[in-house]
Specification:
- By secondary structure, the protein is an alpha/beta fold.
- It contains 8 helices and 6 strands.
- It has helices spanning 23-29, 34-55, 74-97, 113-125, 142-158, 169-174, 221-233, 242-245; strands at 15-19, 59-66, 100-105, 132-140, 186-189, 208-211.
- Strands 3-4-2-1-5-6 form a 6-stranded parallel beta sheet, with helices on both faces.
- Helix 4 links the parallel strand 3 and strand 4 (132-140).
């Protein structure tokens, strides 16, 4: 049964973020190397990106590679970087056909030069697309992002560009990697793990969290629809009471 018809299009989350977890376990269950799981995970990325754009979701952020992931075995990191380059080359047509803008957040300077070059080219080619913004979190860690934000603001205070009294949430937002994105409405994590893993800690302050046991390579459009339907059933109070909302 197609769950798409159960979604209220007027109540879509404006920003969905996904921790794509379970590629390695999926491959292990099939007696294959972890790289096989990462390769198959790209199919789920394509499905979710296309489904989000079709629905009218304005922003989709995918946790593709964390700052901690650099500690993984060198062969796996090398494979992931190669896969990223090939995926960017393959998917540029899909992005253009669906009017999707590609963006990226994180310590992008740490990426191999070939990856950074390909990423930059695709971002440049899609910069005027307006249907949806797809953001890849690459070499990303939220604590590092917040640390950099504090340093930047402190430097501006030191140089009398910002007064300490003027610092508020909007000032902090303007110095985050996600300065052009709204806060996350719905955070999805696959594979059954129930933790945030240093992802968008500031931006998910009032996000609805959705955890599923489905491993990422098995995550389909229907799984995305299920998460959105669950999101739409929840009452988002932002610290208020139900009575105040009504």
């Amino acid at each position: 049964m197609d769950l798409k018809s159960d979604i209220l299009l007027e109540a879509l989350p404006k920003h969905i973020a996904i921790i794509m977890d379970g590629n390695g376990r999926w491959a292990k269950q099939k007696g294959m190397l972890r790289a096989f799981g990462h390769e198959n995970g790209t199919k789920s990325v394509r499905q979710v990106v296309e489904a989000s754009a079709e629905l009218g979701v304005e922003n989709l952020t995918l946790y593709a590679f964390s700052t901690e992931n650099w500690k993984r075995p060198k062969l796996e990191v090398k494979t992931l970087m190669k896969l990223l380059i090939s995926s960017l080359k393959k998917e540029i047509k899909t992005l253009q056909d669906n009017n999707i803008k590609l963006s990226a957040i994180g310590s992008l300077n740490l990426l191999p030069s070939k990856v950074y070059k390909e990423l930059s080219e695709v971002m440049e080619a899609t910069k005027d697309n307006a249907r949806m913004t797809l953001t890849l979190a690459l070499s990303y860690g939220s604590r590092e992002e917040l640390l950099n934000t504090v340093k930047e603001i402190s430097n501006k205070v030191k140089n009398n560009i910002i007064s300490p009294e003027a610092i508020d949430e909007s000032i902090i937002n303007k110095h985050l990697y996600t300065q052009n994105l709204p806060d996350v409405d719905l955070l999805i994590r696959t594979s059954g793990e129930q933790r945030i893993s240093n992802f968008l800690l500031w931006q998910i302050a009032y996000a609805e969290l959705y955890f599923t046991h489905t491993l990422w390579p098995d995550f389909t459009k229907q799984d995305l629809y299920k998460a959105i339907i669950e999101y739409q059933k929840r009452e988002r109070r932002f610290g208020k009471t139900s009575e105040q909302l009504s």
